[in-house]
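ingest -> validate -> predict -> emit
validate: passed (alphabet ok, no gaps, 328 aa)
predict: started
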Amino acid sequence: MLKKITQFLGGLSAGPGVGGEPLAQLCLFGKHPGWDDHMQDMGLTTDRLVEVRRLLYSEGIAGNIDSGAWEKLPARVERFDHAFLWRFRRDEFVYGRMWASSDGRGRSKYPMIACVHARGLDPAKISARAAETVTRAMEGCRSERDAQSVRALFMRESEALKAQASAMLSPPDERFDRICRAGMAMDASAHPEHALGLERVAYALHREAEPAIKKESTHISRGVHLRARRMEGLGVGGSAWAWSAASLDLLGRPQGLDEGMLAIEAVEGGWVDLLFGRVSATELFCLKAPLTAVPLTSDVPFSIPAEFADRVRSRVGLWRQNEGGRAG
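emit:
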């Protein structure tokens, strides 16, 4: 089952919301040696990408840099090296990579970011194409040193992505999410300690996220942050997909939340940060916070009621059968 997810992942200009025309849009922003300061944004053509750039970069990362929050940590993650998956309602998502970079003056506090906004396409197919496009863009930006070459790279990758996406139109379905959840279940079955960690994450969701979600709605009233173990064998970005699919199903909102769910995978670390609802500088402190500052939720020794643990095990059993419907 893990092999199926790996194959899917690596094989890998309308406003935000459930509606809108199908699209797959590449975007680049951040710091690059070809510019003396923040680079010229490329592909920032949807409201969703504007929102993602603002929350993630202009407010989140900049807020922690300006406040000195990361500098105050006795130990911190020194380099940006993350994959992220920002899921919204139904089949809409933004997948991206952020990595350590610098501008033409050698200033390196900010990263560079490449991401793809996708909507209205077959998730099982576009997830892989988005990952491939983002990876090529990242590798190209790392090797190119001048702005003109980066612009040419962006145009080439952007046009190729749009051409591929035209063959991926399909009604939204949960096939890819079901495969991801089945992979989580198989992993839990093979590793008892992982099964316990999954129960603890489920219990934390029950205590912290469920009360913030309005009954019979997909609106969450406040931000919630958990940190989960990064799964082995899924490749870069695979754990973000798996944990997002599992978490949303455990919350009984497999179609997503209005305010979104952001999963940030520390590529060189052993964890995935799960953010539900509001995302601000406070929530994004996790980007450079090591386990000594923000421990794994799956390591917290909660006193979990037996009835709740039984419900989670039953749910995971359904995942193993690749059935993944709504959580009860």
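DSSP finds eight helices and seven strands in the chain.
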